[in-house]
Amino acid sequence: MKNLAHRGLCRLRDSPGGGEKGYIKDQVFCCALAALCERERSPVPRFVQQCICTVEARGLDIDGLYRISGNLATIQKLRYKMDHDERLDLDDGRWEDVHVITGALKLFFPELPEPLFPFSHFSQFIAAIKLQDHAQRSRCVRDLVRTLPAPNLDTLRVLFQHLCRVIEHGEQNRMSVQSVAIVFGPTLLRPETEETTVPMTMVFQNQVVELTLQQCSEIFPPH
Description:
RhoGAP_dom; Rho-GAP; Rho GTPase-activating protein 27-like; Rho_GTPase_activation_prot; GTPase activator activity; globular; 223 residues
């Protein structure tokens, strides 16, 4: 029921002022990942690539990158602009705050109808992260990631390689592997029904993302 309601709400066209005017055509937010990639003829959504390139160009040493929230109203305006104008320019002065860019990117993932780690794999990832043997745990998570659909795998690769670069600047931006995992865990890996979401499950979600970050070069080897 929750997901049906979510899909219905996502179809509504929300203006920055909060009004609604029918339905969005070819939206980016709330669009199924495979459909979006196919429409754009790109292995990774252009919005994701654009945000990552902008963040890296402005500097990965900015304090609290991805942890500090940008202005919510400005983030919503950026989202509206993305859904209504294919020629989005992130160098526009309206988006000068990098935390607005990171906030919009963080908003994109939980609004996917299905997360990057698909619902069909949720239980398997949770079971894998519970394994006591570290080598077996790492191997199982790596093997599971490699079974994901191509759009999910390609988008995860681009995102996680970017997040690893963020972590490399941890002394400046104060973002560790653990803090990045806490930010992204619940948005990239979530159960299909709310009933499954308990505090311990959230810990496991974060741990899956944390392990994937730690094993990034092995899970996503350079092409």
